Automatic annotation (TrEMBL):
The keyword Hydrolase applies. Residues 383-403 have a biased composition (Low complexity). CDD domains: LD-carboxypeptidase. It comes from the Bacteria. Gene3D superfamilies: 3.30.1380.10, 3.30.200.180. This is Serine-type D-Ala-D-Ala carboxypeptidase. One of its GO terms (biological process) is proteolysis. The lineage of its organism: Bacteria, Bacillati, Bacillota, Clostridia, Eubacteriales. It comes from Ruminococcus callidus ATCC 27760. Coiled coil: none annotated. GO terms for molecular function: carboxypeptidase activity.
Length: 419
């Protein structure tokens, strides 16, 4: 601040001197330019001897003093200015450690201030996709509307050797089969059991209607509390399955107790949840079914199990979260996800959904009024490495054990239990 003021003062002084000098010189020029007044001729002296030759006037002409003063002041100002510049340049070349530290601090503060926050872009999603995805809700109040679900595959054609399936036509969505294989391979490693059997998976609307009618005939009731209405069964979505036990050609009920409790305790690691429990019957409207599992994917299964919420409760909870304020979920393996809800734009055919452009994400409908966005942040909580290593070892053990088991032929398909 001082250097700037000093430099400015010198320049102002120079300007003032130039103005003053210019003013003085202009007055002199004006005087010189005025015509001289004519004087009456003097009478000549009578005696030529007395006539004297005039000596030049030693006084300086008027105005020359101001001009010289201006030149002197300008010279002094220029010398001072040159000296000031030399002094400033000399000191600017000297190392100043304190200034460097200050610059580094300023740089750090600038980086912190400009650290990017969550950045999103809009993607257009058809409103028809509200009825598709791992998190769609199908219950007595919300019908399943997709007539031909995609990626339905035969479980028998894709299964491992560590469990059974009731028939070659028993099927699920591909992602549900992949997760099922991983879960039952790990179950075999943990317990040595290979007697789990999938007795029911995807059902068509016609198959669900047949089961519903059979239950009404058996009970004599007008409605069923054991079989969902056609169009309102999770089995029609391809995300749900029913377990039983199969050993030595004999099938028995599965209740998830004893060593089989491992399934309930660990199914969320593979994206599955025990869908209908006794304590949630008032919310789901379905009696407890220890054999019925639903695939919802990760990290949703982990959150639902840890917080003891059913799918209805979970989807309601997610409506409190947005892209600006997402729900942060740490999965069982330490991976951190962000989950939020986007309401469908009912005034249009599609909805703009905010998603991060630089991270992995999925979008699932909730089957009613909006979308659930799940973002993999790429961040991992401490301790993940140990969990990942243990999981990898279990998978390798399962793969080695499965290689020693001979291929099996699917047992005869039995009638689906009325779930």
């Amino acid at each position: 601040m001082f250097e700037i003021s000093l430099g400015g003062t010198i320049w102002n002084l120079c300007d003032a001197v130039l103005i003053f000098g210019g003013f003085s010189m202009s007055r002199e020029e004006q005087k010189q330019s005025k015509p001289a007044k004519k004087k009456a001729p003097k009478k000549q002296a009578a005696s030529p001897q007395k006539q004297m030759t005039k000596r030049p006037n030693p006084r300086r002409p008027r105005g020359t003093g101001g001009k010289m003063a201006a030149e002197i002041v300008i010279s002094v100002a220029l010398v001072a200015f040159v000296g000031y510049q030399g002094f400033h340049m000399y000191h600017s070349l000297q190392p100043i450690s304190q200034g460097t530290e200050g610059m580094e601090l300023t740089s750090d503060m600038s980086e912190a201030a400009t650290e990017p926050q969550n950045v999103y872009e809009n993607v257009s999603v058809s409103n028809e996709d509200v009825h598709a995805g791992d998190l769609i809700l199908v219950n007595a109040n919300t019908a399943y509307v997709e007539e031909n679900p995609s990626e339905i595959v035969s479980i028998y054609d894709h299964k491992t050797d560590n469990y059974h399936v009731s028939g070659t036509e028993t099927s699920l969505r591909q992602q549900a089969v992949d997760a099922l294989n991983q879960m039952l391979d790990a179950f075999y490693v943990a317990t040595g059991h290979q007697d789990m059997i999938v007795i029911s998976g995807y059902r068509t609307n016609a198959q669900q209607q047949e089961l519903y009618d059979e239950d009404l005939q058996a009970t004599g009731e007008q409605t069923s509390t054991r079989v969902a209405l056609p169009g309102h069964s999770e089995h029609e979505s391809g995300y749900s399955l029913d377990f039983s036990l199969y050993e030595d050609g004999v099938q028995s009920d599965y209740d998830g107790t004893g060593e089989y409790a491992w399934i309930n305790e660990n199914c969320s690691h593979y994206g599955y949840v025990l869908r209908y429990t006794e304590d949630k019957q008032d919310t789901t409207g379905i009696q407890a079914e220890p054999w019925h599992y639903r695939y919802v994917g990760q990290p949703h299964a982990a959150y639902m199990q840890e917080n003891n919420v059913c799918l209805e409760e979970y989807l309601t909870l997610l409506k409190n979260y947005s892209a600006d304020v997402p729900l942060s979920i740490t999965n069982w393996d330490g991976e951190i996800y962000q989950v939020y809800y986007v309401a469908a734009d009912t005034a249009a055919d599609s909805t703009y959904v905010m998603v991060p452009p630089d991270k992995k994400y999925t979008i699932s409908g909730n089957n009613s009024d909006g979308f659930i966005v799940t973002v993999d942040t790429g961040e991992i909580q401490s301790g993940e490495a140990a969990a990942s290593e243990a999981s990898g070892a279990a998978d390798n053990h399962a793969a080695d054990s499965a290689a020693d088991v001979s291929g099996e032929t699917a047992p005869d398909a039995e009638a689906d239990a009325a779930q």
